[in-house]
Design a protein that fits this description.
The chain is an all-alpha fold. The protein is built from 3 helices and no strands. It has one domain. The radius of gyration is 14 Å and the shape is elongated.
Length: 65
């Protein structure tokens, strides 16, 4: 299985979002696993929003046109 440049870029974007979300939760002094899990789940949103945007040049969803 090979990973395309687009998939790699999306994964890197997700990792950056994860880092930011977890850092935000931890910086409040909250180390609860459930809250950290929610931060990781919320980190999915930015890359998914970019994927859903057909006009996003980096890794927007292709419409087949």
């Amino acid at each position: 299985m090979t990973i395309s440049k687009e998939q790699k870029a999306m994964f890197q974007s997700y990792l950056r979002s994860c880092l930011a979300a977890v850092l935000a939760v931890v910086s409040t002094g909250n180390y609860e696993p459930a809250d950290l899990g929610k931060a990781l789940l919320a980190a999915v949103l930015p890359p998914v929003i970019r994927w859903a945007n057909v006009n996003d040049p980096a890794f927007g969803r292709k419409t087949g046109k």
